[in-house]
Amino acid sequence: MSGQVKASSMLVNFNDPSYLEIYGFLLTEAALLDGNQFREWTQLLSEDLVYTMPVRSTRENFIKTHFSKEMFHFNENYKSMILRVRRMETDYAWAEDPASRARRFITNVRVSKLDDNRFDVKSYILMTRNRLEAVEYQLLSAERCDIIEKTEDGLKLVKREIFADSTIIGMKNLQLFL
């Protein structure tokens, strides 16, 4: 897992305007996703996007966490994400018909400057999800490791790696975006 701050990057202070801008970006992104505003959300994505969620593996090593380098819950790019969003707008998105009620809580945001335009952003996400008439909520917690780029069109998500905290994802499908 790449949760460590890279030695070549510079940690951005909480009161720095860049930190506040990136934190606002993450909150806006969560609000768009929570509101099922997926087309609007795609405007935050870079055309160079890499979006992955490797499968966690359990091994007998209490110090190091292991994730597969070959198996993924998600292994997407910009074009595949656009296709997923378009499919959700059709009658064939059965996994989300009716739509889930989801809430994303973003916390523990750490920002490091990589160069003039790019930032290495680590955050934790807790997503609650409820479907149909279910009383219980499904939960998913993870660390997200992002690369966010400052462009002429605003901030864009270039890369996201999602590292789930549990080995088994307790949801019947993972159609939702994290």
What's the total helix number? 3
Query: Strand order across the biggest sheet?
Result: 1-4-5-6-7-2-3
What's the pLDDT, averaged over the residues? 86
Most strands sheet: 7 strands, mixed
Which percent bin holds the helix content?
10-25%
Q: Extract low-pLDDT stretches.
A: none
Rg over C-alpha atoms, rounded to the nearest angstrom: 16 Å
Taken as a percent bin, the fraction of beta residues is 35-45%
Write the layout of secondary structure elements.
Layout: E1 10-11, H1 17-34, H2 38-42, E2 45-57, E3 66-77, H3 78-88, E4 101-113, E5 118-130, E6 138-151, E7 154-164
Parallel strand pairs: 2-7
Antiparallel strand pairs: 1-4, 2-3, 4-5, 5-6, 6-7
Provide structural commentary:
This protein is an alpha+beta fold. Strands 1-4-5-6-7-2-3 form a 7-stranded mixed beta sheet. The longest helix has 18 residues.
